[in-house]
Automatic annotation (TrEMBL):
Name this polypeptide is given: Cytochrome P450
Binding site for heme: 432
Keywords linked to the UniProt accession: Endoplasmic reticulum, Heme, Iron, Membrane, Metal-binding, Microsome, Monooxygenase, Oxidoreductase, Transmembrane, Transmembrane helix
Molecular function GO terms recorded: heme binding; iron ion binding; monooxygenase activity; oxidoreductase activity, acting on paired donors, with incorporation or reduction of molecular oxygen
């Protein structure tokens, strides 16, 4: 009996020695990577756990290094901050960084969707869905965008001349209305504003609040701990409410052959692909949640920045007049028209540079990586992709990197910039699947709004305060007033 205990004891000792040796080797290698001047103490980490997302941005995101590779200590946690275009290109195209194994990637509770599923499932799902987010398919849903933007304009007409309002709510309803109709579920969300604001905006807000709280309270990262809290019930119920009104109806009408259309949902449900109901459900939910936030926040940010910069707003208006004419009454956009709006596209890109949706996405490398400067990044390191920092790097964008200057995206100037210095939707195999869809929708709604209305705001660019987690938003809200052009 004693012999068995001795053997077990020796095995246990060997096991712990191996773990200790592994960590000793890890820290010996990682110590060669330069240390960041930014350090978040245990005291600050505890303060951030209170859920102040503005403080998280001000103390952490805003101060991340904007060049090279640095190790950052975040209380007891160690991150590798990646802020060079060369290293970002290396990591975003590396097969060992394709899996999204960091726990934060499943905070939305849709584990079988593109954001969270295993790499094998991701390959299959992405292959099925890719054709429906390419230009050839997207031009077929521009008529839907035109129709839904008309509904937006009807709602905005009621706000004309009534002072400042938060345009984000109206743009969120447009985004959800459009993506659902593109999936053949036309609920007329914007025409039933009161009903669907309660269902969608309220539950979207709950999802964001829970994700935020889970991000900052690091002890809630493990799934088995989070599942014991009331936060798990809150986000599960919120996703369920959204799903009941959208995802389940979409799946049901396809099953009952009420609709048999050419959408990515129909493709996912094709029996030959052998996807489970949970996989299909989570993919639809993922697209609804991400497409709504990405489009609404970006469009709101563009409108706010144009309200602050009247000269640039006038340049956009002049381009719209030249390409589209003066009236929005019978305006019907197509891909050819949208492609001619070059300056508007520069404005959108400059907004995404200054106010990217994801400020510092997290990845975990499954294998060792050698950086562009020759540093070894050990396997299983937590990598912070410093999008916000590199987008505002003075080394890359010049001394006026923090200023709003759309001309920096002219062909002549932008061709001198490294392609991985501007990654609002990331790049590489895991680039956001819906980035083209989002750009087309944003262009369509902006063309209509800016052709009809002059936009103003009392907010000042350098007074803007940001909060982050999971995405970058303006703390003050997207407060603008609109006045019909004469």
């Amino acid at each position: 009996m004693m012999t068995i205990f001795k053997v077990l004891f020796i095995i246990l000792i060997i096991f712990f020695i191996q773990i200790f040796y592994k960590w000793l080797k890890y820290f010996y290698i990682i110590k060669k990577i330069p240390k960041s001047s930014l350090k978040i103490s245990f005291k600050t980490l505890w303060e951030l756990a209170g859920g102040d997302t503005k403080k998280l941005f001000d103390k952490f995101v805003k101060n991340l290094d904007s060049d090279g590779l640095k190790r950052v200590h975040f209380g007891p946690f160690l991150f590798i901050n990646v802020a060079s275009p060369e290293d970002l290109q290396l990591i975003l195209n590396s097969k060992c960084c394709l899996p999204k194994d960091h726990p934060t990637n499943n905070f939305l509770k849709v584990p079988q969707g593109l954001l969270s599923c295993s790499i094998d499932k991701w390959y299959l799902h992405r292959k099925i869905m890719n054709p429906y987010f390419g230009l050839q398919y997207l031009h077929t849903i521009i008529p839907i965008m035109n129709r839904k933007v008309k509904s937006l304009m009807e709602n905005l007409n009621k706000m004309e001349g009534k002072g400042e309002f938060n345009i984000f709510n109206d743009l969120s309803l447009l985004a959800i209305d459009n993506i659902l109709t593109a999936m053949d579920l036309d609920l007329d969300v914007q025409k039933n504003k009161e009903k669907y604001s309660e269902i969608f905006l309220k539950n979207f807000k709950i999802c964001n609040e829970v994700v935020i709280e889970r991000h900052v309270k690091f002890w809630l990262h493990p799934e088995f701990i989070f599942n014991q809290t009331n936060l798990n019930e809150k986000i599960t119920n919120a996703v369920s409410e959204i799903s009941k009104e959208t995802t389940l109806k979409i799946m049901q009408q396809i099953r009952e052959n009420q609709k048999n259309s050419n959408t990515f949902v129909q493709a996912l449900m094709d029996p030959k692909n052998n996807l489970t109901d949970e996989e299909i459900h989570d993919e639809i939910c993922t697209i609804i949640l991400t497409a709504t936030d990405t489009s609404a926040v970006t469009a709101s940010s563009v409108i706010l920045l144009l309200a602050m910069h009247k000269e640039i707003q006038n340049k956009v208006f002049n381009e719209l007049k030249q390409v589209l004419g003066n009236s929005t009454e019978k305006l019907t956009l197509d891909m050819e028209m949208l492609n001619k709006l070059n300056y508007l596209e520069m404005v959108i890109k400059e907004t995404l540079r200054l106010m990217p949706i994801g400020v510092s996405p997290v990845k975990v490398n499954k294998e060792e990586i050698i950086s562009s400067e020759g540093y070894v990044i050990p396997a299983e390191s937590t990598l912070l992709l410093s999008v916000y920092a590199i987008h505002r790097s003075k080394t890359i964008w010049g001394e006026n990197a923090n200023e709003f200057e759309p001309e920096r995206f002219s062909n002549e100037r932008f061709k001198k910039i490294h392609p991985y210095a501007f990654i609002p939707f990331l790049k590489g195999p895991r680039m956001c699947i819906g980035w083209r869809y989002s750009m087309i929708l944003i262009k369509t709604l902006l063309a209509n709004i800016l052709l009809k209305y002059e936009i103003d705001t009392n907010l000042k660019f350098h007074e803007l305060e940001f909060e982050t987690c999971p995405i970058l938003k303006v703390c003050q809200g997207y407060l603008v007033s609109i006045k019909e052009r004469k």
